[in-house]
Amino acid sequence: MQLPIEITKQEILKIYKPIPPNSHKGIQGHALLIGGSYGKMGSVCLSSKAAIKSGCGLVTAFIPKCGYEIVQISIPEVMVLTDIEENFITNIDYDFTPNVIGIGIGIGQEIATQNAIHQLLFDNKISMVIDADALNILSLNPTWISLLEPKTILTPHPKELERLLGKWNSDEEKFAKTIEFSTKFEVIIVMKGAPTYIIDGEKIYQNTTGNPALATAGSGDVLTGIITSLLAQNYEPINAAILGVYLHGLTADIALPETGHQSFIASDIINYLGKAFLTLEN
Q1: Which of 272-276's residues contact partners 24+ apart within 8 Å by CB, and which partners?
Q2: Cβ count near 160 (within 10 Å)
């Protein structure tokens, strides 16, 4: 196994693209975030807000009907499409062509939801970020993994990774299994943790930002929104993953003197994104 490449500010400045002076929302990318179920609409709110706060020109959330007012009121900047079903997603149907799709946040594992995701994967030809229950659904239906477009980004936490790969007995075995999976299916895996690693085939990247303040509900939903947004803005998939993970961690480092570890919540990641981006402009 090769030594990890450290994700430092120096590395980030090589890939970061400042917003051009003549930019407008039509060229800043359109992200589609698919997720939510009854009682779990907060995840889509966090993810969608993170996407729009990371520079994406347009964001649409596709959600079950029960979340319509929640998302519209929580984030007026985000457009909303709803499923025909009230409490969970059953039929993913939209009438535009997004630049990227982020899927899985709060989506649940209903059989109808699984079937809808299978149909989407079968039809899809654009970049995708897969998180949360969409990952668990892939674990339940492993043959569907071969439907993923090359360089799809998967963002599992340790338990979701274990469901995908099977158990491991050491860190060395975990990395070997992840590298093998990434290589076989041509996917990028963001191994969320402390620190977070990104696996792209044989290449391993180790993030250098972040602290225990990020160990809070909704933190991963925000990361999905950030990475999806960067992909929509035409970053290469590996660069979107690297920059997204770096900025996500950096918000907690910037906020820590003001919030402490205990009082930092997922919404604070979004609130401090501006300051994180500003560190790359100086």
Answers
A1: 273/50, 273/53, 273/54, 273/226, 273/247, 274/53, 275/251, 276/247, 276/250, 276/251
A2: 24
CA neighbor of 37 nearest in space, from 93, 111, 113, 99:
113
- Structure letter (DSSP) for residue 33: E
Task: Please state the pTM of the whole predicted model.
Answer: 0.98
Count CB-CB contacts under 10 A for residue 132.
Answer: 24
Using DSSP bridges, classify how beta strands 188-191 and 203-207 pair: parallel, antiparallel or unpaired.
unpaired
The predicted model gives 78-85 an average pLDDT of 98
How are strands ordered across the β-sheet holding 58-63?
5-7, 203-207, 197-200, 188-191, 153-154, 127-130, 100-103, 30-34, 58-63, 79-82
| pLDDT per residue as tens digits for the range 36-58 | 999 999 999 999 999 999 999 99
Say which residue the tokens 């090359």 belong to. Answer: 150
Across the range 79-99, mean pLDDT stands at 97
Summarize pLDDT for 139-180 with one digit per residue, the tens: 999 999 999 999 999 999 999 999 999 999 999 999 999 999
Instruction: Retrieve residue 24's tokens.
Output: 């407008």
Find all residues with CB under 8 Å of 196, minimum gap 6, and list them. Answer: 190, 206, 207, 210, 245, 249
Band (1; pLDDT cuts 50, 70, 90): confident
d(CA 211, CA 278): 20
Torsion of CA 49, 108, 154, 55, to 10 degrees: -10
**Rounded-to-integer distance, Cα 65 and Cα 193, Å:** 33
